Amino acid sequence: MKRNATAVWNGSGKEGKGTLSTQSTVLNKTQYSFSSRFENGVGTNPEELMAAAHAGCFTMKLTFVLGAAGFTPDEIETTCGITLDNGSITKSELTVKAKVPGIDAAKFQECAADAKANCPVSKAYNCEITMDASLA
Q1: Rounded Cα gap, residues 107 and 92, in angstroms
Q2: What does the pLDDT read at residue 17?
Q3: What is the pLDDT of residue 108?
Q4: 25: how many CB neighbours lie within 10 A of its CB?
Q5: What does the alpha-carbon distance between residue 17 and residue 84 come to, in Å, rounded to a whole number?
Q6: Which domains does the chain have, with CATH numbers?
Q7: Predicted local distance difference test score (pLDDT) of residue 35
Q8: Long-range CB contacts for residues 77-81, cutoff 8 Å, separation at least 24
Q9: What is the average pLDDT value for the chain, to the nearest integer?
């Protein structure tokens, strides 16, 4: 399987602007700029998209790991923060809250650690990955 996205940029790095589009069209000429990346401007940015990718991939992987262990989650909510420091992605921080009937805290932590280590996005990122996982 291969997925794709396209970035188009016009102008200089600081004054220019760009758009991002994805194969699925979920992003369709979505605005990004210096301001949306390094300040509080309107639009998306690569780090926000990396955070969404990691949160989504980890959460889906956790559902599969839990399922293999005999548990079906009612809900898993994962927030991911990506840190950009001096031009490098240095950290991805996962915060997970889950409602999983019948699971104890130790088993949940084991499943969450497995998902963190083995989701495809975790494997692709070359940075520190932290996780705070709890049951609701």
Answers
A1: 23
A2: 96
A3: 98
A4: 8
A5: 20
A6: 5-38 (no CATH), 46-135 (3.30.300.20)
A7: 95
A8: 79/55, 80/51, 80/52, 80/54, 80/55, 81/51
A9: 96
Query: Is the pTM value of this prediction over 0.70?
Result: yes
| Long-range contact set of residues 117-124: C-beta below 8 Å, sequence gap at least 24 | 118/61, 118/65, 119/54, 119/57, 119/58, 119/60, 119/61, 119/62, 120/57, 120/61, 121/53, 121/54, 121/57, 121/58, 122/54, 122/57, 122/58, 122/92
Confidence of residue 112 (pLDDT cuts 50, 70, 90): very high
What confidence category does residue 39 fall into, taking pLDDT thresholds of 50, 70 and 90? Answer: very high
**β-strand pairing of 30-33 with 17-22:** antiparallel
Contact 43, 30 (CB under 8 A): yes
